Amino acid sequence: MTVTVDDRIEREVYVPAPIDRVWRVLTTPEHIRAWYAPGGCEIDPHPGGRLRFRWDEHGEFHGMVERAVPDALFRFRLALEPDHAPADPGEATLVEFALSPEGPGTRLRFAESGIRALAVPDDAKAKHAEYATLSWTSALEELAAIAAASHN
Q1: Are 31 and 24 a contacting pair, CB within 8 Å?
Q2: What pLDDT score was predicted for residue 1?
Q3: Which of 10, 21, 38, 147 could cross-link with 25 by S-S, CB 3.0 to 4.6 Å?
């Protein structure tokens, strides 16, 4: 049986909030806990900086920031397996958030790529893509709601 695996997940959302507010919600631990990693988050949002996302039910996932341009772009590698620092592309995917002003708000574009390059069987890649699609879609909706309601 052949398993088809998407290599890239893409989503975008309009956020009715200024770009600097969306950036803060996207990159600060107290906000990330609310929209993505309820078990906690540590982040050094600079190139080469480490990040950790925690979930009680999934464990702690490690990553490394590749690029961070305030109010524009946040890109990092995120390990496929919990409690493992990604050392090469076969162990991590590339996650990217691109922000651009749109009217009074912000257009937030998201992509996770490198799924086909993961060093796991195709069925595990397909399962990751399916789960990641659902979880990122939900997380982006939550991020947009928090940014729209936030005043700090």
Answers
A1: yes
A2: 46
A3: 147
